[in-house]
């Protein structure tokens, strides 16, 4: 999950059962596997919704997407979430295996910064791009998807930066999900001083 200003990206396990109930498991210091109940999920056309009373998040997702994910909203905050499925063996071990084994953190090795589009500079455009993707066992970013985009001019440089970025490899043949937010910001003072416009990644 992404978008919370205090927590940043959060890695959680979600269980959405066919019976209509759902649960969430967060990493905790004791290493125990604790599941907190979520609301029953509802499907309307191609959209699934459910909520987390503990955090106040209302979750929504488009079931037509190849991988489950969508947006969340509270009274004051908005964000998104992005999933990868677990194979049967991993699912069978959910209650006993440490969460670090199922969701080890992604470690950036190289984080490329997008080039600020010339046309955006000419048009004095600032913006934001949120992208989610999978990382394979070699640390390569694959199947990137733009989740939020303030202006189409920022799409190409965002995807190009992802293509140049890498994560630390691991020894299991599984893909893990990740997200990254790019903030494209014009700064008049920086431009007057001859510095390029700024792009930050988080």
> Which word captures the global form?
globular
Within the CATH hierarchy, at the fold level, what is the topology of the largest domain?
TolA/TonB C-terminal domain
What series of H and E elements makes up the topology?
A: EEEEEEEEHHEHEEHEEHE
Report mean pLDDT, rounded to a whole number: 80
Quaternary assembly: single chain
**CATH 4th-level superfamily of the largest domain:** TonB
Query: How helical, in percent, are the residues?
Result: 10-25%
| Residues in β-strands, percent | 35-45%
Computed over alpha carbons, the radius of gyration is: 19 Å
Q: What's the β-strand tally?
A: 14
Spatial ordering of strands, largest sheet:
4-5-6-7-8
Largest sheet: 5 strands, antiparallel
What is the CA-CA span between the terminal residues? 13 Å
Concise summary:
The chain is mostly beta strands and 202 residues long.
Describe the structure.
It contains 5 helices and 14 strands. The chain folds into 2 domains: 12-102, no CATH class; 108-201, TolA/TonB C-terminal domain, CATH 3.30.2420. The model has no long low-confidence stretch (mean pLDDT 80). The chain has a 5-stranded antiparallel beta sheet with strand order 4-5-6-7-8, with no helix packed on it. Strands 11-10-13-14 form a 4-stranded antiparallel beta sheet, with helices on one face. The protein has a 3-stranded antiparallel beta sheet with strand order 1-2-3, with no helix packed on it. By secondary structure, the chain is mainly beta. The relative contact order is 0.15. Helices cover 14% and strands 38% of the residues. The longest helix has 10 residues, at 155-164. The protein is globular.
């Amino acid at each position: 999950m992404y978008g919370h200003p205090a927590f940043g990206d959060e890695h959680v396990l979600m269980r959405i059962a066919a019976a209509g109930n759902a649960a969430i498991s967060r990493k905790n210091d004791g290493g125990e596997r604790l599941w907190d109940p979520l609301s029953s999920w509802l499907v309307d056309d191609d959209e699934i919704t459910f909520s987390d009373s503990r955090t106040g998040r209302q979750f929504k997702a488009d079931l037509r997407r190849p991988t489950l994910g969508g947006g969340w909203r509270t009274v004051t905050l908005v964000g998104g979430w992005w999933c990868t499925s677990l194979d049967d063996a991993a699912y069978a071990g959910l209650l006993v295996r440490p969460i670090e084994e199922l969701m080890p953190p992604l470690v950036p090795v190289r984080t490329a910064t997008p080039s600020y589009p010339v046309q955006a500079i000419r048009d004095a455009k600032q913006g934001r791009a949120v992208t989610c993707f999978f990382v394979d066992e070699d640390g390569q970013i694959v199947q990137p998807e733009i989740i939020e985009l303030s202006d189409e001019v920022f799409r190409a440089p965002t995807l190009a930066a992802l293509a140049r970025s890498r994560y630390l490899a691991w020894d299991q043949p599984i893909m893990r999900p990740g997200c990254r937010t790019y903030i494209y910001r014009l700064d008049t003072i920086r431009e007057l001083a001859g510095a390029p416009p700024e792009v930050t990644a988080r």
